[in-house]
Amino acid sequence: MTTHRLAIYDMDRTVTFRGTYTGFLIHVARRMAPWRLALFPGVILLMLAYVLKLISRQRLKEMNQALMIGHNVERARLMPHVESYADAVLASNLRAGAVAQIAQDRADGYRLVLATASYRLYVEPIARRLGFDTVIATDHLSQDLRYVRAKIAGENCYDTGKLRMIKAWMAAEAIDRAHAHIRAYSDHVSDAPMLEFADTPFAANPHTPLAKLAAQRGWTRVDWA
């Protein structure tokens, strides 16, 4: 018997047109310390180092944040810019088709979960505006309650790590997988573990590797404007 209905969405390029992390860094730097924009070429170099496998994806995110925002940022100073960034995402970086599907899943009685590698810090304001019930995301390790550190707590919510975090959340919520029906949506092949875990997986605006995998597995493809 199904007792839980979950609709789990990736965020970047699934719900949004574009990735949100670089935009977040630029948005906050421009408002808090415009001089840091001169350091942006360093972000490009760090991305190259990641592509060359010189640094991990997790370390890439930490170093980019330290470069563009700072190692330690007072939360009270940061949050107004986090909120204004969420407004900017909703104004110009949302797929109308994704928004419509979110509304349909809500109407169908599904609990809405946003599961993303992006930072919880700015994902939660976006999720709140979109009416999501739960956020599963990459967390910051805070030095204390007043500061946000450029350091990840636990896992980067990505690939198999994302699925582990989804399962851990379900266990904490006493959601038995055998009694749950899960819809899952993603654009990227790194979310294959999450899509395989779902009862009804959707390749949403998939890039080529996921489009090929979805065709092989018989997963439904959706292309949202």
UniProtKB/TrEMBL annotation:
The keyword Transmembrane applies. InterPro entries: HAD-like_SerB, HAD-like_sf, HAD_hydro_SerB1, HAD_sf. Pfam families: HAD. The keyword Transmembrane applies. Coiled coil: none annotated. It comes from the Bacteria. Keywords: Hydrolase, Magnesium, Membrane, Metal-binding, Transmembrane, Transmembrane helix. The chain crosses the membrane at residues 35-55. GO terms for molecular function: hydrolase activity. This is HAD-IB family hydrolase. It comes from Sphingobium cyanobacteriorum.
